[in-house]
UniProtKB/TrEMBL annotation:
EC number of the protein: 2.3.-.-
GO MF entry, a single one: acyltransferase activity
Species whose genome carries this gene: Tabrizicola soli
Entry keyword annotation includes ATP-binding: no
Top-level lineage group: Bacteria
Name of the protein: GNAT family N-acetyltransferase
Length: 191
């Protein structure tokens, strides 16, 4: 795909984010709030309320992730930023639970928590492009550690694949640091 561009999700790009996620908010109306809100709170909200939570987060800044464009069309998304920005990702017992050497309250410890691609752009290896730019973005922003909890295997129609495939992270140099669940390793890249 010759005309790919990746940009941080700043307030001026909100219309592109909304267009990418569609009227239902991608992934059953999540609007990328799954790791931002307690499950009971999130489940009690309407899709419009979840969308407003995320749009408010974008407006406050800094950018909570990156948008991938094919020409002028937004076609992909990766949520990336400090661990503290996604409090539910840090809960004890989760596969993504922080390790003592990379605490959630350290602003230099970042996480990649999810991906979303327009159906027409899935299965084309674009996760690699977003991940590469995410690593560069984290470095530029002062991160020293970048973590993810991707899924092992390559079931392209699997809903859990929103966390990304482990092979993509391995290819980028991430190493497994914990495996609370066999199919969801916590992986890390020291920047």
């Amino acid at each position: 795909m010759p005309d790919l561009q990746i940009h941080p999700l700043t307030p001026d790009r909100i219309p592109d984010f909304v267009a990418l996620f569609g009227p239902d908010g991608a992934c059953y109306g999540c609007w990328c709030t799954s790791f931002r809100l307690r499950p009971k709170v999130r489940q009690a909200m309407t899709g419009d309320e979840r969308r407003e939570v995320m749009l408010d987060r974008i407006r406050r800044g800094p950018p909570p992730g990156l948008l991938l464009y094919d020409g002028d069309d937004p076609v992909g998304w990766m949520q990336i930023g400090p661990r503290a920005d996604v409090p539910e990702w840090n809960n004890p017992g989760r596969v993504s639970s922080p390790r003592p050497d990379a605490p959630a309250d350290d602003p230099a410890v970042w996480a990649i928590t999810c991906f979303f691609f327009r159906r027409s752009h899935r299965g084309k290896g674009l996760t690699h492009a977003l991940l590469a730019e995410g690593i560069a973005h984290a470095r530029r922003s002062g991160a020293r550690t970048l973590e993810a909890a991707p899924i092992l295997g390559s079931r392209p129609k699997s809903i859990p694949l929103f966390v990304g495939p482990a092979r993509t992270f391995q290819d980028a140099g991430f190493q497994t640091v914990a495996a609370v669940k066999e199919t969801r390793p916590l992986m890390r890249l020291v920047l």
